[in-house]
Amino acid sequence: MAQTLTEKILRSHLKSGTLESGKPIGITIDQTLTQDATGTMTYLQFEAMGLERVQNELAVSYVDHNTIQVGFENADDHRYLQSVAAAKGVIFSKPGNGICHQVHLERFGEPGKTLLGSDSHTPTGGGLAMIAIGAGGLDVAVAMAGGPFHLISPRVIEIRLSGALRPWVTAKDVILTVLEHFGTKGNVNCIFEYTGEGVATLQVPERATICNMGAECGVTTSLFPSDENTRSYLKAQGRAEVYRPLSADEGAVYDGLFEIDLSTLEPKMACPHSPGNIEVVRNLAGKRVDQVLIGSCTNSSYVDLKKVADILSGHTVASHVSLGIAPGSREVLLMLSRDGSLATLVQSGARILESACGFCIGNHQSPGTDGVSLRTSNRNFEGRSGTKSAHVYLVSPETAALAAITGVFTDPLSSHGIPYPEVAQPASFTVDDSMLVFPPADGSGVEIFRGPNIGAPPANTPLKENLDGYVTIKVGDKITTDHIMPAGARLKYRSNIPVYSKYVFEPIDEYFSQRCIENQDRGRDNFIIAGASYGQGSSREHAAICPMYLGVKAVIALSIERIHQNNLCNFGIIPLTFRSEEDYAKFDQNDEVVIELIREQITTGEVVMKNRTKAVEVILDCDVTDEQRAMLISGGLLNILKEHS
Ligand code: MIC
Ligand code: SF4
After folding, report:
1. Which CATH number is correct for 5-264, 3.30.1490.20, 3.30.499.10, 3.40.50.1100, 3.40.50.410?
2. Most buried by CB count within 10 Å: which residue of 173, 233, 389, 568?
3. pLDDT tens across 557-568, in order?
4. 171 touches 206 (CB < 8 A)
């Protein structure tokens, strides 16, 4: 039978289950990647598994998220990560070498392979025809130990591209169009597979941009076929030998279809405060801009930034605008410096930032009060920039560069007088792997460094018979992991759960953790009530570990996003869903609630929760796999792994 590309790759990696959408499957993972902010917990968990060395084909540890190094914490984390990588057989990408997804695409991605990364934008690898999935650190640790990754066999949605993009219309505008159509919720357990003659008009970095931001739709991943453009990209990276052609069979059947004629698109943007809030740029033409930031794993390839340099050439950044540019990798930075683009950027008044996540995670470059910031990144959740009152718009590098010059939103298709920057893919990239540290063949003698800020992941107890406590918080729809577990200024506590836990829900309710502790002290449980699409955004498992540490036993929501749901199960927090909005309305913060005989109830998949304060009860769904049910009963995956070791 004709197969989709997704099916082909999944089938060749299938370990358990059947490929029928909606059914649980387990797949082998060829490659893994971690980044520093999720990496410390991942490797601490891997160490707890007691293995001498990673078992999968290729494991890379990147340091890109927190390179700010205010205080000793980040530098200590980096030292831990470098030493544990050497000890366990992991390649270490030093801070400054670039953003994990950009570097992985350049140096390690391979068509037809599976990649699991402890970062939600791991699907960037789909630009090279990989099944590349974002997951919590514990899942990645299991994959490094040679274990399968469990997921729900996806619905495969075909996104059929025809035509070609017009000048000034970009890959970013393609994915913003996809986001406009699919939105940021309701796409759990889907994969976007790109097909059609329009595919050949897009180069690998453009495909990577599109796959990267598919994460904002909440899909498991996105992928493109592997074709002549893939071959020339890999050849230009000096890796022609890993090329192999891959595509769906003629007549493959998909679970859905969305057609895009590339030639009809126009420059778009995601408006505050959601990547799904799409508008055409022309609708805001003339609006004043305070800050422009170009970079992030979405749009910081060599061609992206060379185009920016060509646009800025001979111009000066508007006097009221601050322009920052973060090249995605050291390779990109080296190439820009060799071809003179770096000088052009500096001359225009751009501030050159480190090749790291930086501004994208709110680590620095926070806008001023009420500031309007145009960014080429992928998330504009309220407060993520570090400034709650800021208005962040997500745009293409071309749209961003024009605004930096004019100082206002400028439709790239309008008559602004700046010539279109024609930039071709280079025939060869400047490859320099000297900031990759390869592990010794035998790491047994390597001493693993641990600073005082690094603590072991906290233990959980097995599930009790009855849960009894309070709705410690009730939140609405689309609560992101940035709301649950803020990054930015708090990022340096990622390796210190007791301290980081103080900031759970800080952007919404700074007293949440205090209430949790008070309830815990009285021997009562904590419950979180939420609306639709709870846990959108990042893969950070801290959004489950820290609530677990605070005694949260269940999250009851209208719906929960895939990665977060897995993280909750991994750490023994029960994910439950309401059957209706009316049921959601029956609970308020501080209500006293009880779930009796929970161990028995979750095995049936139906759970009755009583609201003692309001004297009502509702039936909830507990839609988890058998493996997850076992984790919930044991108090998390780590407890199960301990039982089996
Ligand atoms: C993000 O873009 O939100 C992050 C920061 O890269 C996260 C990972 C993290 O929180 O460390 C992600 O996307 O998974
Ligand atoms: Fe880094 Fe931003 Fe990409 Fe996350 S989205 S990996 S913070 S650049």
Report:
1. 3.30.499.10
2. 568
3. 999 999 999 999
4. yes
